[in-house]
C-alpha cells in the first residue's frame, strides 16, 4: 500500500496558529493562562469565551441573552494623516469608503441581559476597514459576537488581563460598575482582543457578581443569597457537630455501664 499520501504536504493548507493562551495539535488542546487562584472552573469557561460569550451564558442560564446598547460613539478618518472626526450617522458614502487607509472607529458599551437582569457589561473599541464589515456592523446593527458568525470567521483571540473586584487602570471602570449596579468587590472582569480581517475589537467585560456563577438560576431570579447560604451551611455544620458530640457522649456512657456491669459480674463470680 502506498503510504506517501500520509506524508505529502499541501501548500494551500494554512499553518496551525498557536497563541500563549491556547495551543493544539492533531489530538490535544491546551489552555494555559495564569488565572487568579480564586477563579473557579465555571468562571474560567466564561473568561475563555472567544467572541461567543452570549452562547456560553445562554447555555449556562438556559435562557436567551439579549444585547442592549448603552452608548456608541462613531469616528471616521478620511486618511491616516487626518484626525478622527465624529460621525452621528454613518452615511452610505462613508461606509463604502471604509478601508485600512480610511478606517471607521466606534467606541461602545452594551449590557448583556438575561431575564431582564444585567449579566455582563462590555465596553469596546472597534476598528472597521472594509465596506462589508461597516455595513453589517453600522447599518444592519450586528453585535460583535454575531459579526463573527455572520462572516463565518473565527477571530484571533488574546486574553490581556483577568481580575477580581474593581477594574485595574481603566478610566471606564466606574461607569462599568455603576451601570451594572453591582458591588465592585464582587466583580469579575477581563480585557481581551478579537481580530479578523477588517474588523478589530478591544473589549473590557465586567461581570457584576461572582455569585452569578454560583447561584445560576437562583441568582437570576433573585432567590439566591450568598451570605444566607453560607449561614445555612454553617448552621448545618454546627448541628452536625452537636449531633456527633451527643453521639460520642452516648457511646461513652454505654461503655462505662458495660465496664461497671463487667466488674460486678466478675466480683459476683469470685464471691460464689
Describe the structure.
Strand 1 (22-24) and strand 2 (29-31) form a beta hairpin. The protein is elongated. The model has no long low-confidence stretch (mean pLDDT 83). The chain is an alpha+beta fold and 272 residues long. The longest helix is centred in the last third of the chain and has 46 residues, at 226-271. The chain is 38% helix and 26% strand. The protein is built from nine helices and nine strands. The strands form two sheets. A seven-stranded antiparallel sheet has the order 4-3-5-6-9-8-7. The protein has a two-stranded antiparallel sheet with strand order 1-2.
Number of helices: 9
Shape: elongated
Query: How large a portion of the residues is in β-strands, by DSSP E?
Result: 25-35%
Strand order of the largest sheet: 4-3-5-6-9-8-7
Number of strands: 9
- Secondary structure category: alpha+beta
Radius of gyration: 30 Å
Provide mean pLDDT, rounded: 83
Order of helices and strands: EEHHEEHEEHHEHEEHHH
Amino acid at each position: 500500500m502506498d503510504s506517501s499520501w500520509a506524508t505529502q504536504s499541501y501548500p494551500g493548507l494554512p499553518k496551525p496558529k498557536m497563541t500563549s493562551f491556547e495551543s493544539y495539535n492533531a489530538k490535544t488542546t491546551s489552555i494555559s493562562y495564569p488565572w487568579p487562584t480564586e477563579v473557579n472552573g465555571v468562571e474560567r469557561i466564561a473568561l475563555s469565551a472567544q467572541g461567543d460569550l452570549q452562547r456560553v451564558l445562554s447555555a449556562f442560564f438556559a435562557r436567551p441573552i439579549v444585547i442592549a446598547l448603552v452608548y456608541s460613539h462613531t469616528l471616521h478618518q478620511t486618511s491616516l494623516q487626518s484626525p478622527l472626526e465624529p460621525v452621528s450617522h454613518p452615511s452610505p458614502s462613508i461606509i463604502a469608503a471604509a478601508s485600512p487607509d480610511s478606517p471607521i472607529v466606534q467606541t461602545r458599551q452594551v449590557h448583556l441581559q438575561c431575564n431582564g437582569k444585567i449579566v455582563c457589561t462590555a465596553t469596546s473599541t472597534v476598528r472597521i476597514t472594509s465596506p462589508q464589515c461597516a455595513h453589517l456592523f453600522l447599518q444592519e446593527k450586528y453585535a460583535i459576537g454575531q459579526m463573527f458568525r455572520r462572516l463565518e470567521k473565527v477571530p484571533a483571540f488574546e486574553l490581556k488581563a483577568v481580575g477580581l473586584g474593581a477594574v485595574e487602570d481603566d478610566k471606564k471602570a466606574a461607569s462599568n460598575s455603576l451601570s451594572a449596579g453591582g458591588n465592585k468587590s464582587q466583580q469579575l472582569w477581563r480585557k481581551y482582543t478579537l481580530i479578523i480581517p477588517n474588523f478589530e475589537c478591544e473589549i473590557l467585560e465586567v461581570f457584576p457578581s461572582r455569585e452569578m456563577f454560583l447561584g445560576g438560576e437562583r441568582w437570576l431570579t433573585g432567590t439566591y443569597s450568598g451570605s444566607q447560604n453560607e449561614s445555612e451551611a454553617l448552621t448545618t455544620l454546627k448541628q452536625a457537630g452537636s449531633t456527633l458530640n451527643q453521639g460520642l457522649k452516648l457511646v461513652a456512657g454505654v461503655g462505662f455501664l458495660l465496664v461497671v456491669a463487667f466488674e460486678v459480674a466478675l466480683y459476683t463470680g469470685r464471691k460464689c
